[in-house]
Design a protein that fits this description.
Layout: H1 6-14, H2 27-32, E1 37-40, E2 43-47, H3 48-53, E3 61-68, E4 74-82, H4 83-93, E5 101-107, E6 114-116, E7 126-132, E8 152-155, E9 171-178, H5 179-182, H6 195-204, E10 210-211, E11 214-215, H7 234-242, H8 261-274
Antiparallel strand pairs: 1-2, 2-9, 3-4, 4-7, 5-6, 5-9, 7-8, 10-11
Helix pairs in contact: 6-8
Amino acid sequence: MRTLNFLLFFGLFMSGCMSIDSKQQTNETKEIAIAGIDTINHQIIIDLPVLAAQGKLPPEDTIHFKRDPHFNNLEKDFIGFPLTDLLKTAFERFHIDTAQAIVLFECSDGYTPTAPLALMYGKNKPYVVSADAAAATGGKWVPGFEKFAPYYLVWGDYLPADHCYVYPYSLLKIKVLSIQKAFKNAYPSDNPDMVRGFSLFSQNCMKCHAINAVGGGMGPELNYPKNITEYWSDANIIAFAKNPPAFRINSKMPSVTDLNDEAFAEIVKYLKYISKHKVIE
């Protein structure tokens, strides 16, 4: 399962993350930043295919990666550019508060992982890649990996034991927004006792499942109009998460194997709490 260390996620924010100063917009920036980069309600939306079609993405180069989790942790060469080059263009065009911002990756299959903006500027650099250097002439991806198109996010130094880095493929859009906006209708702001359950749910479930339309679209919405706890027992919810194929043949959901029963119980408590807070905007 593609996972994110949510404790690190909040730790980076609470420690101040980092603030990126916007620079005064120049004529050159106006020329570069076009329709593919937009802002709506204090969030930056970067449409990668639109930028590519207009030739406005940063210059690409061959980049060597020590290991790649989707390619059996083998060394790989991809064609792409540093994500920070693209973010620099966006920040120069639009002035937003980046002190408590996250980056949301929107994929064509509904997978929607997030990561702290500060993580993009850490020692482990993220890259947006459009092709595998090992692909045949005229192609972009080796056979069996065509689903990675149009873009794939890769980190410079992958550490198998570190779950704070996400590797979304079939990437379409990159959004930068505040943590408050990102989780507005799912965060238990009126009940601190539910924060742990929300954090566990966000870390393990929200990339694929939504709560009040907040989260991924790969799996079903779990709260609106009916919360999963309204039609499934606690025991079945936990058993399904641990072993989906035992409930549904050809289930696309991977088994959740890195949570203990206490953590599952916290998630179910959060789901029951959020069932009383159904909001769609």
